[in-house]
Write a structure and sequence with these properties.
Helix content: 25-40%
CATH architecture of the largest domain: Orthogonal Bundle
Shape: globular
Order of helices and strands: EEEEEHHHEHHEEHEEEHHHEEHHHHH
Strand order of the largest sheet: 3-2-1-6
Radius of gyration: 22 Å
Largest sheet: 4 strands, antiparallel
Number of domains: 2
Mean pLDDT: 91
CATH class of the largest domain: Mainly Alpha
Oligomer: single chain
Distance between the termini: 40 Å
CATH topology of the largest domain: Phosphatidylinositol 3-kinase Catalytic Subunit, Chain A, Domain 5
Strand content: 15-25%
């Protein structure tokens, strides 16, 4: 065996899935051995003529790493003495707080129960370095779920009162994303939309959003992107209908209703980044039964977060994902508004005002503009509901050129 090749077994919790080899220099999967448990492969990874598609598995493996676009990652890699974020993957055995996949060294057999981050504490070193705070001592521990965190915003996992919590920052001059996470959470509370609850903390004067991990030691989060790799998408079928078809084949309950709620939320907060890795489904990691849509999470890239105050307006044209290019078109895909209590949205703009009141990053003029624009988005939604105009009946089986181009292109991995 070459010195730069290391042998592992891809594991799904306690179940061996397949043998693989990692090239130490490139951090890529250079070879895949026998498949032990085909059903426990990551969702959407195909098997061709009895063999795992190594290219697809490599893409999945690379997608577990911190993206190179992460804020402050270059300085962090220098301090960690590593050349790429891919090298961090092997250091933590690929373990994550989003699913139960990991790699077990062939020469040192260990059990999931000995190493998983759900039951065991982990070092704050990587997270602190990613936040520019330095390590806690001379010896840096790389055994951390931060090695497999996604997105370009600064973030770190921390155990708070025994709970695994994700702390995430903001960007630009306003650092608005953490506030957006909180107001989106409160809006969904009002509408009884299943979601991850976000709160706000301040560290060194900067705002951060905090949420508890919604994945347990018995579940996997499977992104919509990988759900949609389970079936071939015909050219005449829209992305929206393709997702419904895939989830129907996987027997995931309640998806159409979950998408209705997601699109309503995104319309109200003008979410710009609901790409196919920003929503998905929950699967039982042991029975492999898909139990539900994932609660809505990662809503910070919204409410004109990167726009100057003068451009904050309810009808400002904003790009939209994942099914249409504009919220005005996407909201027409909602199959029913019967679940929505319009009265519950009354005064949401004042709740936003109270949230922003003490921010040193968002001045009075921006706060006023945001509150007025959010109030007007509620009014616009009411007009959509009253109009009764929907694309659902005629569009759910139709594709268009722009959707097909977006679907066939490389999936955006830059989670917020």
């Amino acid at each position: 065996m070459a010195n730069n090749i290391k042998k592992y077994t891809l594991m799904h919790k306690n179940i061996p899935v397949a043998d693989l080899e990692l090239d130490e220099a490139s951090c890529a999967i250079s070879a895949v051995g026998p498949v032990y448990e085909k059903l426990h492969l990551p969702t959407g990874i195909p098997i061709k003529k009895g063999d795992i598609d190594r290219g697809a598995l490599n893409e999945w493996w690379r997608g577990r790493a911190i993206p190179a676009s992460r804020s402050g990652i270059r300085n962090a890699l220098v301090e960690l003495n590593l050349s790429t974020t891919q090298k961090l993957l092997e250091k933590c055995l690929g373990l994550s707080l989003s699913d139960q996949y990991w790699i077990c060294p062939a020469d040192t057999p260990i059990a999931w129960s000995q190493v998983n981050f759900f039951d065991h504490s982990f070092s704050d070193d990587v997270g602190n370095i990613l936040f520019g705070q330095g390590s806690s001592g001379a010896s840096i521990s790389l055994m951390s779920p931060d090695n497999t965190s996604d997105g370009w915003l600064k973030k770190k996992w921390k155990i708070i009162d025994g709970k695994r919590c994700l702390i995430k920052g903001g960007s630009g001059a306003t650092w608005q994303e953490p506030y957006n996470e909180v107001i989106a959470s409160r809006l969904m509370d009002r509408l009884n939309i299943p979601h991850v609850n976000y709160s706000l903390i301040l560290e060194d004067g900067y705002p951060y959003s905090v949420c508890e991990d919604f994945i347990t030691p018995w579940t996997d989060l499977v992104s919509a992107w990988y759900v949609m790799q389970t079936k071939r998408k015909p050219n005449h079928v829209s992305i929206y209908q393709h997702y419904l078809n895939c989830t129907d084949s996987l027997k995931v309950p309640g998806i159409r209703e979950a998408l209705d709620r997601m699109m309503v939320l995104d319309y109200l907060i003008v979410n710009e980044d609901r790409h196919q890795n920003n929503f998905g489904v929950i699967r039982n990691a042991e029975t492999l039964i898909y139990t539900s849509a994932a609660p809505l999470f990662d809503n910070g890239t919204s409410l004109w977060f990167d726009k100057p105050t003068a451009m904050i307006n309810a009808d400002t044209k904003i790009n939209c994902k994942p099914f249409k290019n504009s919220h005005e078109e996407q909201i027409k895909l909602v199959s029913s508004f019967d679940w929505l209590d319009r009265n519950a949205l009354h005064g949401i703009e004042e709740e936003l005002r109270e949230l922003l009141r003490d921010s040193i990053f968002i001045d009075r003029a921006r706060c006023d503009a945001l509150c007025l624009a959010l109030k007007n988005r509620v009014a616009m939604l009411n007009k959509v509901i009253d109009s009764g105009h929907t694309l659902y009946e005629k569009d759910n089986c139709r594709s268009d050129v722009k959707e097909n181009v977006a679907y066939s292109g490389r999936q955006d991995k830059k989670l917020r």
